[in-house]
């Protein structure tokens, strides 16, 4: 049998296999062979003659060289992979070079054309154009439109709208709205039909540029071009309608999304929650929040912050605490906006402990706290009497190195109000001096609080001196300032009352005339009633009740009960005191919450007379239960709560009303006990002042 050769050349085995030479360099894994290797699917490389033994480095064996060659069988699957890798690597390298050249170009049509022509000696494909535009124009968006025109003219583009959409997305990323509008116009001139992606990109670009009305305008153009919005577009447009102030359209789209079972997303829900919050529909905001969770949409940080802000505006701090706990449980990392919303909610609702805890947490986290947040805290402290906490906050403000955190006129005003509410005259005067030293002039709020402080301390001459400061500074008295003077007059001894009345008259001549009629015992109750009615009819709504309360305090202090009753009757006819008395078959009630001590005593006097008259006339009789509601807590017009003052007064009258153990702020009695008490008293003796 003929012998066969043990080995044949690969080239003799496949003499006619069509191929192109492909090779790739790699480094073998062995660290002992740091030489390059060539992979070939062509013939074996020619063998170099072995060098002399003495010329081989380190005694390496024959055939050693700096390059090794590996041959791959062209029929194996590996050969095709090597070819593709080689071709793909070359294409990527070419496109990267083209993108780099384009990115380095000035935004000039000739320069862009030259760079692209050099990079693409052959016709580029549509995908080549997309890759280059995405890569190069991201760095230099100015060249995007120029490169787009070159590709449209020189590349094999089947759908021109794809390239336009690429450039539109780049302009959206850079927030170039004018260029976006210009490119849209170019599309239409070139007869390119926009698609859903075009509109979605333009709408989201308008929203990103802060132009919600433009986003709405492009959304409403979609049917004209035969495009139907998808969910992403609806999401953007609902947000745009909300930002543009068209709440009705936004809510209509949201209702459609719910009815058609669209997949909601956090952007839509956040926008709708914000719309409900802005319009005061806080229950609607809470419903959307619960609906999105029921639909399986997980709230993100923006949604949580929007809800915290909404519930803070709604004065629902208990809901704020619940949402914050949920946020922590879901491991959503809070942002500075989160802390700001929490602080705003707690300070507005006067949740002192929670607000201070949040403030200290923000300090521990080294967050920037600006003067607005500081002033919210100081205002809360002034209202609820947190003296130590306010002093701590004020010290932190003065010690801050950030100019945005230093005290302003509102900060000083809050501190004066705080010391005024606690009748700390030295503290209020010290803050006033600090304020002037810091370069701030006292405003009307500071002087109002200072006068109230002096009035509580019985320092009438200082009240007059502070009023002179108002005139020296050229500040015009407002209704709140006049109400403060009226409140001071109610607590001023009779021998010094003329000084305060003079200040009232100089501030408001009509109010001063009414006070003079009140003080003048020779003036009739009817003339006083007419003057008071005219004053209250012309006064702003927010000051009508404070004026009535203070005037009745003055009447009671001067033992002018007849005039107090005349004023109460006038106020009730004007609707200032509504629903003071309520009657059911089982209970008659007197509602005194929000009234000053003098107004409450006057109302009690009238009510007792009404009860006595009903008993004497033998008409309908008394119901089983009689109640007086004073409310609980601090009274605006007295350092003590109205309930405390009233309880003492009822004991003086030996009235059978006792505080209800299960209803805070209520004093109750039975008809039997009230009848016995009324029969033992004459009507004129019921409330002797």
TrEMBL record:
<feature type="region of interest" description="Disordered">
    <location>
        <begin position="1"/>
        <end position="71"/>
    </location>
</feature>
<protein>
    <recommendedName>
        <fullName>Smr domain-containing protein</fullName>
    </recommendedName>
</protein>
<dbReference type="InterPro" id="IPR002885">
    <property type="entry name" value="PPR_rpt"/>
</dbReference>
<feature type="repeat" description="PPR">
    <location>
        <begin position="195"/>
        <end position="229"/>
    </location>
</feature>
<keyword id="KW-0677">Repeat</keyword>
<keyword id="KW-0934">Plastid</keyword>
<dbReference type="Pfam" id="PF17177">
    <property type="entry name" value="PPR_long"/>
</dbReference>
<dbReference type="Pfam" id="PF13041">
    <property type="entry name" value="PPR_2"/>
</dbReference>
<feature type="repeat" description="PPR">
    <location>
        <begin position="265"/>
        <end position="299"/>
    </location>
</feature>
<dbReference type="InterPro" id="IPR011990">
    <property type="entry name" value="TPR-like_helical_dom_sf"/>
</dbReference>
<dbReference type="Pfam" id="PF12854">
    <property type="entry name" value="PPR_1"/>
</dbReference>
<comment type="similarity">
    <text>Belongs to the PPR family. P subfamily.</text>
</comment>
<keyword id="KW-0150">Chloroplast</keyword>
<dbReference type="InterPro" id="IPR033443">
    <property type="entry name" value="PROP1-like_PPR_dom"/>
</dbReference>
<feature type="repeat" description="PPR">
    <location>
        <begin position="300"/>
        <end position="334"/>
    </location>
</feature>
<dbReference type="InterPro" id="IPR002625">
    <property type="entry name" value="Smr_dom"/>
</dbReference>
<feature type="repeat" description="PPR">
    <location>
        <begin position="160"/>
        <end position="194"/>
    </location>
</feature>
<feature type="repeat" description="PPR">
    <location>
        <begin position="335"/>
        <end position="369"/>
    </location>
</feature>
<feature type="domain" description="Smr">
    <location>
        <begin position="590"/>
        <end position="675"/>
    </location>
</feature>
<feature type="repeat" description="PPR">
    <location>
        <begin position="230"/>
        <end position="264"/>
    </location>
</feature>
<feature type="compositionally biased region" description="Low complexity">
    <location>
        <begin position="1"/>
        <end position="45"/>
    </location>
</feature>
<feature type="repeat" description="PPR">
    <location>
        <begin position="443"/>
        <end position="477"/>
    </location>
</feature>
<feature type="repeat" description="PPR">
    <location>
        <begin position="370"/>
        <end position="400"/>
    </location>
</feature>
<keyword id="KW-0810">Translation regulation</keyword>
<dbReference type="GO" id="GO:0009507">
    <property type="term" value="C:chloroplast"/>
</dbReference>
<feature type="repeat" description="PPR">
    <location>
        <begin position="408"/>
        <end position="442"/>
    </location>
</feature>
<keyword id="KW-0809">Transit peptide</keyword>
<dbReference type="GO" id="GO:0006417">
    <property type="term" value="P:regulation of translation"/>
</dbReference>
């Amino acid at each position: 049998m003929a012998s066969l050769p043990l080995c044949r050349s690969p080239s003799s085995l496949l003499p006619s296999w069509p191929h192109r030479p492909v090779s790739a360099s790699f480094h073998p894994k062995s660290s002992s062979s740091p030489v390059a290797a060539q992979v070939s699917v062509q013939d074996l490389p020619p063998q170099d003659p072995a060098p002399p033994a003495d010329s081989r480095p380190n005694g390496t064996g024959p055939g050693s060289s700096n390059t090794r060659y590996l041959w791959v069988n062209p029929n194996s699957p590996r050969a095709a992979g090597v070819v593709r890798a080689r071709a793909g690597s070359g294409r990527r390298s070419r496109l990267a070079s083209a993108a780099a050249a384009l990115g380095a170009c000035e935004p000039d049509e000739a320069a862009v054309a030259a760079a692209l022509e050099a990079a693409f000696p052959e016709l580029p494909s549509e995908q080549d154009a997309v890759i280059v535009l995405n890569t190069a124009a991201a760095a230099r968006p100015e060249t995007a439109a120029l490169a787009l025109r070159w590709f449209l003219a020189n590349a094999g583009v089947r759908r021109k709208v794809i390239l336009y959409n690429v450039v539109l997305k780049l302009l959206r990323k850079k927030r170039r709205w004018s260029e976006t509008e210009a490119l849209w116009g170019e599309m239409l001139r070139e007869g390119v039909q926009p698609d859903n992606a075009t509109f979605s990109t333009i709408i989201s670009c308008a929203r990103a540029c802060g132009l919600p009305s433009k986003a709405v305008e492009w959304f409403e153009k979609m049917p004209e071009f035969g495009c139907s919005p998808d969910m992403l577009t609806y999401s953007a447009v609902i947000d745009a309608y909300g930002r543009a102030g068209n709440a009705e359209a936004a809510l209509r789209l949201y209702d459609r999304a719910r009815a058609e079972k669209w997949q909601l997303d956090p952007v839509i829900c956040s926008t709708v929650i914000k719309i409900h919050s802005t319009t005061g529909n806080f229950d609607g905001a809470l419903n959307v929040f619960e609906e999105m969770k029921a639909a399986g949409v997980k709230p993100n940080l923006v949604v949580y912050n929007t809800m915290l802000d909404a519930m803070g505006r709604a004065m629902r701090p208990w809901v704020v605490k619940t949402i914050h706990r949920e946020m922590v449980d879901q491991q959503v990392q809070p942002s500075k906006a989160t802390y700001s919303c929490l602080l705003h909610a707690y300070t507005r609702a006067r949740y002192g402990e929670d607000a201070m805890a949040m403030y200290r947490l923000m300090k521990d986290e080294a967050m920037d706290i600006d003067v607005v947040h500081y002033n919210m805290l100081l205002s809360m402290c002034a209202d609820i009497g947190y003296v130590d906490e306010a002093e701590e906050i004020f010290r932190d403000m003065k010690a801050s190195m950030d100019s945005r955190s230093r005290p302003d006129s509102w900060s000083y005003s809050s501190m004066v109000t705080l010391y005024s509410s606690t009748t700390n005259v030295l503290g209020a005067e010290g803050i006033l001096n600090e304020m002037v030293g810091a370069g701030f002039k006292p405003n009307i709020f500071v002087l109002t609080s200072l006068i109230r402080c002096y009035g509580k301390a019985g320092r009438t001459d200082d009240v007059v001196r502070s009023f002179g400061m108002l005139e020296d500074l050229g500040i015009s008295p407002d209704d709140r300032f006049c109400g403060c003077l009226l409140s001071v007059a109610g607590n001023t001894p009779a021998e010094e009352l003329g000084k305060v009345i003079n200040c009232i008259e100089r501030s408001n001549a009509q109010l001063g005339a009414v006070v003079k009629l009140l003080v003048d015992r020779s003036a009739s109750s009817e003339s006083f009633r007419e003057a008071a009615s005219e004053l209250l009819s012309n006064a702003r709504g927010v000051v009508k009740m404070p004026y009535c309360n203070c005037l009745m305090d003055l009447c009671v202090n001067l033992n002018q009960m007849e005039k107090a009753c005349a004023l109460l009757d006038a106020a009730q006819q004007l609707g200032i005191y509504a629903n003071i008395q309520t009657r059911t078959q089982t209970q008659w009630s007197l509602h005194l919450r929000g009234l000053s001590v003098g107004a409450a005593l006057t109302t009690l006097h009238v009510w007792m007379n009404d009860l006595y008259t009903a008993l004497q006339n033998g008409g309908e009789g008394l119901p089983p239960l009689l109640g007086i509601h004073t409310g609980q807590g601090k009274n605006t017009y007295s350092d003590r709560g109205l309930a405390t003052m009233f309880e003492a007064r009822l004991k003086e009258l030996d009235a059978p009303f006792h505080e209800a153990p299960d209803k805070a702020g209520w004093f109750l009695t039975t008809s039997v006990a009230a009848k016995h008490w009324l029969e033992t008293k004459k009507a004129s003796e019921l409330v002797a002042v």
